[in-house]
Design a protein that fits this description.
- The chain is mostly beta strands.
- It is built from two helices and nine strands; from the N terminus they run H-H-E-E-E-E-E-E-E-E-E.
- The strands form two sheets. Strands 2, 3, 4, 5, 7 and 8 form a six-stranded antiparallel sheet that branches. Strands 6-1-9 form a three-stranded mixed sheet, with no helix packed on it.
- Strand 3 and strand 4 form a beta hairpin.
- It is elongated.
């Protein structure tokens, strides 16, 4: 008589258990991500650290809140600044970013960047006022 049919669970090998733990997950993180923000607006702008979003279009999670590694204040036209942070999406080749910023003249802007390859943990986002 086979004991496994009576209710005793079959023993798994260590390699089978390790294989089960490595299954892909729906959610992920892209740690120590660098975003280079380039000011192509022709205006001096300020980019707050909070209020932005990031999305993996192929993932299940949709838009996630994103906090930059720091605020960027008085970024001159043509200048750029890099910030580092951890994103709540996987490092994918088609990430989307929603960035909020304001001009020193009092105008507010929202810009969406699509199809950004961040598999190397780097992105360059060119801000425009169009």
């Amino acid at each position: 008589m086979n004991k496994n049919l009576i209710g005793e669970l079959p023993r798994t090998t260590k390699s089978a258990v390790n294989h089960q733990r490595r299954r892909p997950v729906a959610f992920g993180q892209c740690k120590d991500m660098a975003i280079n923000l380039v000011n192509d607006t022709g205006l001096t702008i300020t980019i707050p650290s909070e209020g932005h979003r990031v999305k993996n279009p192929g993932g299940l999670e949709g838009w996630n809140n994103m906090t930059l590694g720091g605020s960027v204040i008085n970024l001159a036209p043509g200048a750029s600044r890099s910030v580092r942070q951890t994103l709540n999406i996987k490092c994918v080749d088609d990430a989307e970013f929603e960035i909020h910023y304001s001009a020193s003249q009092g105008r507010d802007f929202v810009q969406i960047f699509k199809s950004n390859d961040i598999t190397d943990k780097n992105a360059t986002l060119r801000l425009t006022n169009n």
